[in-house]
Design brief:
The protein is of the alpha/beta class. The chain has 2 domains: 226 residues, Quinone Oxidoreductase, Chain A, domain 1; 142 residues, NAD(P)-binding Rossmann-like Domain (Rossmann fold). The protein contains 14 helices and 15 strands. The strands form 3 sheets. Strands 3, 4, 5, 6, 7, 14 and 15 form a 7-stranded mixed sheet that branches. Helix 6 crosses helix 8 and helix 6 crosses helix 13. The protein starts with 9 loop residues before the first helix and ends in a 9-residue tail after the last strand. 50% of the residues are buried. It binds NADP nicotinamide-adenine-dinucleotide phosphate (NAP). The site of NADP nicotinamide-adenine-dinucleotide phosphate has 33 residues, from helix 1, helix 3, helix 6, helix 8 and strand 9.
Length: 410
C-alpha cells in the first residue's frame, strides 16, 4: 500500500479526528485502568509502522502482578475472543498510526471479533439495546471495534476483550450453535464488511433504486467481502446484478446470484468498456452502482450506463484526494463540467444496532445466505494472514482462530 493512502477511505478520515479527541480519555480509562488490571494474555501488537511482516509481533500483554481477568465496568462486557476477521483498513492503520506515542505502546490490531461473553458490567445486562433479549454469561456475540478503539490500540487480536455492550450483537442462529461453526462467519458479517454492506444497501439512494420496477445493479469489486454480500442483498431485493471481478471468481459470484459477470481484466479500463459496449445503454442502464474498488472514472463516465435518477455509492476514497473528489462529484454542476449523476462516498461507523440488523438479515430476512470465508489461520499465523489480505485477492473474509472453540473457564 503506498504512503499516499493514509486517507484510503472515510473510516480513516474519521480516524484522524476521532483519535485526537479520544487520545487523553482513552489513555486514562483504557490503558491505565483496564490494562493494568489485565493478567498476561497473548496478543498481536504493532511494534513498528510498516507491512505485516515487520510491523507485527506476537506478545504477552497485561500485568505480571494480576492473575484474574478484569471485571467489566458500566455497560461493558468481557469477551473470550474465539475469532477475529481481518480488513484492508487494518493494514492502513498498521502502516500509518505512529507507534511511538505512549498510548499505542501495546497497540493491538483488527476490528472484527467473535466470541463468548464471560462477564458483564453492572449495566450491560440491562442495556436498552439488548432489552428484548438480555446478554448473559455464555452469550455468543460478534461486532466491529470503532476507529477510536483501534487508534488507541484496543483491537481484536487478543485472547480477552473488554468492549461496550453497545457494540455487540448476538451471532446469527443460522450460522450454527458453536463458536467453531458460527465464529468465523459472524466475525465477518457482524464486523466491518457486513455493517458496510448494510450501510450501502440501506442508503436512501439504494432504497430508491431497489424500489423501481426491475432494478439493475452493477457491483465493482464483487468477489470481495463487502461485494459478495451486496450481490446477495441486491438479488434478494429483486435486482438484476452485474458483478465485476476477475475471471477466476466468475463461478463464485454467479453462485451468489450474479446474473452477469464482467471480467475487468479482459475489459480494461472498465468504465470505457461499459460506456462503449451497447449493452448498458437506455433501458439497460443501471439504476445503482456499488463501487467497492474506488474507481473515479467509473463515476465520471457513468452517464453512459447509469440512469439519470440512478446513483453511484462508493466505499473507497482515493488517498488525500477523497475529499476534493467528493466535493467535485457532488457540487460541480454539469454546466461547469460536473457529472450529472448522484455520488456518495460512504464511511461506516460500527454499532451494535447495525450488527443486529445484519444478523437479522441472515436469520430472518433471507437477504444474506452466506458470509464467505476466504481462509482461516491459527493465531500464530497472523502475519501470513495479513500478507494474504495485502494481496487484495481474498474471496470473502480472512479469519483468525484466536482461542477457537475451547471450553470457557473463569
Ligand atoms: N467506507 C468504509 O467504511 C469501508 C468499509 C469497509 C471496507 N472499505 C473498503 O472497501 C474496499 C473493499 O473491502 P473488502 O473488505 O470487500 O475488500 P477485500 O475483501 O479485501 O476485496 C478483495 C477483492 O477485491 C477484488 N478486486 C481487487 N482489485 C479489483 C479491481 N480492480 N476490480 C474489481 N475487483 C477487484 C478481488 O477480486 P479479484 O481477485 O477477482 O480481482 C478480491 O476478491 C477496501 O478498499 C476497503 O478498505 C471501506
Amino acid at each position: 500500500m503506498s504512503s499516499s493512502s493514509l486517507f484510503t477511505d472515510p473510516a480513516i478520515l474519521s480516524l484522524v479526528s476521532a483519535s485526537l479527541v479520544l487520545l487523553l480519555a482513552q489513555f486514562y480509562t483504557n490503558l491505565v485502568i483496564n490494562r493494568s488490571l489485565s493478567p498476561k494474555m497473548k496478543a498481536w501488537v504493532v511494534v513498528k509502522n510498516g507491512g505485516p511482516s515487520e510491523a507485527l509481533a506476537l506478545k504477552e500483554v497485561g500485568e505480571e502482578t494480576t492473575t484474574s481477568l478484569p471485571e467489566p465496568k458500566g455497560a461493558d462486557v468481557l469477551i473470550r475472543v474465539s475469532h477475529a476477521a481481518l480488513n484492508p483498513a487494518d493494514l492502513v492503520f498498521m502502516r500509518h498510526i505512529p507507534t511511538w506515542v505512549p498510548f499505542r505502546r501495546q497497540a493491538i490490531p483488527a476490528m472484527d471479533f467473535a466470541g463468548q461473553i464471560i462477564a458483564l458490567g453492572p449495566k450491560a445486562a440491562a442495556a436498552p439495546s439488548h432489552a428484548a433479549k438480555p446478554l448473559v454469561v455464555g452469550t455468543r456475540v460478534a461486532g466491529c471495534l470503532n476507529v477510536g478503539l483501534i487508534a488507541t490500540g484496543h483491537g481484536a487480536l487478543v485472547e480477552y476483550l473488554t468492549v461496550s455492550s453497545e457494540l455487540v450483537a448476538r451471532q446469527p442462529k443460522s450460522f450454527g450453535d458453536s463458536n467453531a461453526k458460527a465464529g468465523p462467519p459472524s466475525a465477518g458479517l457482524l464486523g466491518c464488511a457486513g455493517q458496510t454492506a448494510h450501510l450501502a444497501a440501506t442508503d436512501a439512494r439504494a432504497e430508491a433504486a431497489f424500489g423501481v420496477a426491475e432494478p439493475r445493479v452493477l457491483i465493482n469489486g464483487a468477489s470481495g467481502a463487502v461485494g459478495s454480500l451486496l450481490i446477495q442483498i441486491s438479488k434478494a431485493r429483486g435486482a438484476y446484478v452485474a458483478a465485476v471481478c476477475s475471471g477466476k471468481n466468475a463461478d463464485f459470484v454467479r453462485r451468489l446470484g450474479a446474473d452477469l459477470v464482467i471480467d475487468y481484466t479482459k475489459h480494461d479500463p472498465l468504465p470505457a468498456y461499459l460506456a462503449s459496449t451497447g449493452e448498458f445503454h437506455g433501458a439497460n442502464a443501471f439504476n445503482l452502482i456499488f463501487d467497492c474498488v474506488g474507481d473515479q472514472s467509473l463515476f465520471l463516465k457513468s452517464p453512459a450506463y447509469l440512469t439519470p435518477r440512478g446513483a453511484l455509492l462508493c466505499i473507497v476514497g482515493k488517498g488525500p484526494m477523497a475529499v476534493p473528489y467528493t466535493l467535485r462529484n457532488r457540487l460541480v454542476p454539469s454546466i461547469l463540467g460536473g457529472t450529472p449523476r448522484a455520488y456518495r462516498l460512504l464511511g461506516m461507523s460500527p454499532s451494535g444496532e447495525r450488527a443486529r440488523a445484519v444478523a437479522k438479515w441472515a436469520d430472518e430476512g433471507g437477504l444474506i445466505k452466506e458470509m464467505t470465508i476466504d481462509s482461516e489461520y491459527d493465531m500464530a499465523d497472523v502475519k501470513k494472514a495479513y500478507e494474504k489480505q495485502a494481496t487484495k485477492r481474498a474471496v470473502g473474509k480472512i479469519v483468525i482462530r484466536v482461542q477457537g472453540d475451547k471450553k470457557v473457564d473463569r
